[in-house]
Each structure stands twice: as C-alpha cells, then as structure tokens.
Amino acid sequence: MSPHGFASMDAYNKELILHNALVKNISYSKGGINSETTSIIGALISRNAVCEGYAKAFKLLCDYAGLLSIVISGKATPQNEPEELHAWNLVNLDGICTHVDVTWNSTTRGKIDTCYDYFNLTDNEISKDHVWDRSLLPACISDKNNYYVRNRLCVSNRSDFKNYIAERAKRGQKTIIFKLTGQEKTMEQVMKAAQEALQSVLNGYSMNLQYNSKLGTGVITL
To answer: Which domain holds residue 185?
Structure first.
C-alpha cells in the first residue's frame, strides 16, 4: 500500500492496519521482562516484546498516523490464570474512545487467524478481565468502532446464531467469526449450537471452535 493510500484512509481503517501489523509480526517474549522486551525497540526491531512493548509500539505508530492514543497501565486476568500487571492502549477515533489490547489479540489465536476480541472495547466489556484507574481516563462507552459491531458479526440469540453459522457454511466459508451479544453462553452451549447448525447444511465436516466466554467472541474453523 502506498503512503498516500494510507494517509487518505479514515481513522478506523488506519488503526486496523496498524493493529494487524503488530499482531502478525510481534511474538510475545518467553524470556521475561527486561529493558528490551518492554520497549519500542523490542517490539519493532527485535519483534519480541511483552505487553508494555506492544502498547508503546502501538502508540508510536498511532502518533505517526495522526491517531490519538495513550498507554494504560493496569492489571488483567488471563483465562485460567491469576491476575497480573498489564499494559494496553486507549485510542480516540474522531472523539470516540475505546480500549485496544494488541498483546492479547496477538497471543490468543496465533498468526493464522487475526484475533479482534480486544479491538475497540468499551469500559464495560474490557473490565470483565482488565482493571485500571478509571478516574484518570476518559470514559469508553460507545461500541460503534468495535470490530464485530462495525462488521456486523454480532448475533443476539441461539436461533440467530444457528442461522448465522449455517448460512456462512453453506456459502463455503472455512473461517466463521462471531460475537454473541445476548445472554452469556458457555463453551459447551456454543459448541452444541454450532454443531446443530453445521449438520443442517453439511453432510460431513470437521470443526475447531475457539471461544472467549467473557466477551462472547469466537471463531469456527472448518
């Protein structure tokens, strides 16, 4: 993509490109926290960083792209793990503030399927597993720029979910991403509904489901 093409994009699509570039090109450091892995150099040069390095690199790229962004220092609770210190970003897109956790999107599903679970979340959504001093930051209350909302990937009930999966499988989609916005569902409930939907349109199939029960986001790979 030419620099002129990027410059002419709206704020959301600039942010999306920067997010995807970091998710796909940085690996989470298994060597622990040090002066490099917490830095922009670790993230952008060595391509090996921890959350602070990811967040600083994302802010730097946002700065160059003319997007307002800051680094948030707080705590987070990874699935089935204890609470830990964590860093992520708050981004202001045309007056709408949201949370972006590039680190968790980078480490959730590997490099094959880009993860958008933590792309432009409201305070209420990200507070399900992130904690920070809200008094220091502007409120994030709009989901207008949430990846799933913006791309119409949300479903609100079991019937709609089954139709959503069946229609996409019938069209030959091999990767189906979704966000459940209604009552919280367990992994087992989502798996059963997806299997019923696929059985109604496919004679035979193999399915892999990855699901974040806290946010209701998931991906089905056929």
So the answer is: 152-221
